[in-house]
Amino acid sequence: MEDYFEEQAFNGVNFTEQRLKKGEYNRCQFTNCLFSGVDLSYLVFSECVFENCDLSNARLNSTSWKEVQFNECKLLGLIFSDSNPFLMAMNFRGCQLSFSSFYQLNLKGSQFQQCSLHEVDFTETNLTGASFSQSDLSGTIFEQTILEKSDFRAAQNYSIDPALNKLKKARFSMPDVVGLLYKLDIQIT
């Protein structure tokens, strides 16, 4: 039988040494915790907040993320596409998400604020209405991605092929909007 945890605070716990109990975590707060390389498979996180945590290279097989907020977290190399997609909703502020994958996920309305998203895979992801404010998208893959109504106005270093993605009513600003022209191999002066 799985455990149920509600409105609990976990502060400074090293889950690489102390095993996180299998179960459902509802409205819990994780602050300064280490999950690097930990198996989080089949856990359920609902309305939880992760603050200044390191989840890099954690295993996420069928992990549920329902209304989860990540603030100032290190999330390198995570395969979010292995997670349970049912009711998935996540927002990120000041996070390092480089080398992670969101392949084929529905992330409508997700916020990626002030994040480092180097080499992230958003192939076939639904990012309708997502915001990438002040995020660095160097080397990030957008292919067959739904980016309608997404906000890239304060994002940097993105390269998006308009022929391979849905961009209707997406918002961009100068000078970074030239990231839509990279495939044409032209010089703009």
From TrEMBL:
<dbReference type="Pfam" id="PF13599">
    <property type="entry name" value="Pentapeptide_4"/>
</dbReference>
<dbReference type="InterPro" id="IPR052949">
    <property type="entry name" value="PA_immunity-related"/>
</dbReference>
<dbReference type="InterPro" id="IPR001646">
    <property type="entry name" value="5peptide_repeat"/>
</dbReference>
<protein>
    <submittedName>
        <fullName>Pentapeptide repeat-containing protein</fullName>
    </submittedName>
</protein>
